[in-house]
Design brief:
The complex is a heterodimer of chains A (about 100) and B (about 500). Chain A has a domain at about 5-45: Histone, subunit A (Orthogonal Bundle), CATH 1.10.20. Chain A is about 35% helix and about 5% strand. Chain A contains three helices and two strands, in the order αααββ. In chain A, helix 1 crosses helix 2 (about 20-40). Chain B has helices at about 10-20, 25-35, 50-65, 105-110, 160-165, 185-190, 225-235, 275-290, 310-325, 345-355, 355-370, 375-395, 420-425, 435, 465-480, and strands spanning about 45, 75-80, 115-120, 170-175, 190-195, 215-220, 265, 295-300, 400-405, 440-450, 455-460. Chain B is of the alpha/beta class and about 500 residues long. Chain B is globular, with a radius of gyration of 21 Å. Classes of the chains: A mainly alpha (about 100), B alpha/beta (about 500). The interface between A and B is large, with 50 and 72 residues.
């Protein structure tokens, strides 16, 4: 069903926010096609009336009080950031 | 004095309690072993100073009569668990240098119970792999050798943990299992590995791969050791809403050695085409051992087994693509940016440089199966098949107490083998993935050797939250198999 072409891989790479070189795109097209071929066999399973299983945890998710439980840890939050300034994360300019 | 690194966790615990040696002595012996086996590359980060400091504190605690369940026992921690102030990489370049400001729940519990950390064990990048050849920090080498003597993979993703235990560089290790990442390396390295029920251990502070599948568990030398360590790792945690609000049983007490009258299921679908003769034989021998111990062995059917791998390789990458979106070069981890780059440029360069090949492939497959137009055909379909697999097990467990199957389709293979074709590598997980998809507890233990002299494991799968039965049957199988082989240099 799915042989991925280079253009599709380019689109997926962009959606994934991963830079891929031109030759990388061809290699990935082959790899990803092989994986998709492999999972193709699922199409033959009869899932009529079957609900998707999103979690095996047969639990009711508990509610907790909506309250602040920590804070005042700015240094900790920033300690691993590649670039900070004046207590903030630094990002490239996003507004012209 | 006996070689302290050759003790089991239980023996070391009892020896410490009797005062035969101190935690500092035990820890020093293991640090020495780590020095001697550095060629195996089992650790990404060794923490000898922290280990000695923790061991001293533990000896002091014991002197005050406050010994915990893991008091003074030196272990390796898979480098997927966040450890406060200690580099946590997930074996990825993108997290190189990352020092968490917090401690994962599982390691907190272990340390509160007195465990001593020797270092952070190597793994496949982001736990994605079956050979530990995708780590940015290099391959792990299996301490076992075949007759040719070439370097073999330890399995994966918890390959460093498995190698460390097998080579006596740790009394035990933590692992995580998403599709077999505890059980398969345990089988390849001749040790015991247990993936508990999904929800038994908190996932908080474990670097996420596929959140509906990831589960922490112990990797040890014996089934008893697994029971001891699991008891220390498990339990409800308010910080992980999928962790089960259930009391933790005394797992060690489950090892009664009595399985008379128990029903053990043998799933016929696991007898796949082309299964090597020695794996078939291993399985048959396991069946005979359990029968001799008084269990009733019955055939069961898990009709959707052949679709488990396909389901897994949609569900796990889909969740990974979403989980790994957090690596954006902004808040932590590596950033690659050139003058004038936009935010998008920075994301794309940082992620291209930070993620290895297999991780990139899985993120892209996941992105594709979740993308508009393909979501129903792939992702939703896979979730429905996942329910079929779950139902298969539920039906089987209507008549049996546990299921016995091989852990992996082969013994450890050579480094470099199965590379080049991602699908071929995925086939190593054919017997472990179904229990992962169904969230069930699974235990692998070594029961025999291949013709090449390499360890082979059998796997027991249990009902949800019935680790006790799995451990009980595992204990009986372990005694019957009497697997005493060790890698060269670790005998005795």
């Amino acid at each position: 069903m799915s042989s991925l072409d280079k253009e599709t891989v380019r689109r997926i790479a962009h959606l994934s926010r991963i830079n891929v070189s031109e030759e990388g795109l061809s290699e990935l097209a082959g790899d990803l096609t092989r994986i998709l071929d492999f999972v193709e066999e699922l199409q033959e399973v009869d899932v009529e009336g079957c609900e998707p299983l999103t979690s095996v945890a047969d639990l009711t998710l508990p509610l907790r009080k909506d309250e602040v439980t920590d804070g005042n840890i700015q240094q900790k939050v920033l300690s691993n950031a590649p670039m900070t300034d004046a207590g903030c994360f630094v990002v490239p300019k996003v507004v012209e | 004095m006996t070689d302290l690194t050759k003790l089991t966790l239980a023996e070391a615990r009892d020896g410490l309690a009797k005062g035969d040696y101190t935690s500092v002595e035990l820890t020093e012996a293991h640090l020495k072993s780590m020095d001697a086996h550095r060629n195996l590359n089992a650790y990404i980060t060794e923490t000898p100073e922290k280990a000695i400091e923790m061991a001293k504190a533990s000896d002091a605690k014991r002197a005050k009569g406050e010994a915990g369940k893991m008091e003074g026992l030196p272990i390796a921690v898979k480098d997927l668990f966040c450890t406060e102030g200690v580099q946590t990489t997930a074996a990825s370049h993108i997290l190189e240098g990352f020092k968490p400001e917090y401690e994962s729940t599982v390691t907190s519990k272990l340390f509160d119970n007195g465990a001593v950390m020797l270092g952070k064990a190597n793994l496949d990048e982001f736990a994605m792999g079956s050979s530990n050849t995708s780590s940015y920090y290099g391959n792990v080498i299996n301490p076992w050798k075949d007759k040719t003597g070439k370097d073999l993979v330890p399995g994966g993703s918890s390959g460093g943990s498995a190698a460390a235990v097998a080579a006596n560089m740790a009394l035990a290790a933590t692992g995580t299992d998403t599709g077999g990442s505890i059980r398969q390396p345990a089988s390849y390295c001749g040790i015991v590995g247990m993936k508990p029920t999904y929800g038994r251990c908190s996932r908080w502070g474990i670097v996420a791969f596929a959140s509906s599948l990831d589960q922490a568990g112990p990797m040890t030398k014996t089934v008893r050791d697994a029971a001891i360590m699991l008891g220390s790792m498990a339990g409800h945690d308010a910080k992980d809403s999928t962790s089960a609000p259930m009391a933790v049983p005394d797992f060690e007490a489950a090892l009664s050695g009595d399985i008379r009258g128990m029903k053990i299921g043998i799933p016929k679908e696991y007898r796949v085409d082309g299964m090597p003769e020695e794996i078939s034989k291993l399985w048959d021998e396991g069946v005979a051992m359990l029968r001799d111990a008084g269990a009733e062995v019955v055939d069961v059917t898990l009709p959707h087994t052949k679709y488990a791998l396909g389901t897994y390789y949609i569900v796990a990458p889909a969740e990974a693509s979403s989980n790994l979106a957090r690596y954006d070069g902004l808040r932590y981890g590596q950033r690659v940016m050139d003058e004038g780059d936009s935010l998008d440029d920075m994301y794309m360069k940082s992620r291209a440089a930070g993620f290895g090949k297999e991780v990139q492939r899985r993120i892209m497959i996941g992105t594709y199966v979740l993308s508009a137009g393909y979501y129903d055909a792939y992702y939703n379909k896979a979730l429905k098949v996942r329910r079929r697999i779950y139902e298969d097990f539920a039906t089987a467990f209507g008549t049996v107490d546990a299921i016995l199957a091989p852990t992996a389709p082969s013994a450890a293979f050579a480094i470099g083998e199965n590379e080049g074709d991602p699908v071929k590598m995925y086939l190593n997980d054919v017997f472990t993935v179904p229990a992962s998809l169904a969230g069930l507890p699974g235990l692998s233990l070594p029961t025999g050797l291949s013709s090449e002299g390499l360890p082979l494991g059998l796997q027991l799968i249990g009902k949800p939250f019935d680790e006790e039965t799995v451990l009980r049957v595992g204990g009986v199988l372990e005694s019957a198999a009497n697997f005493t082989a060790k890698p060269a240099g670790q005998e005795g």
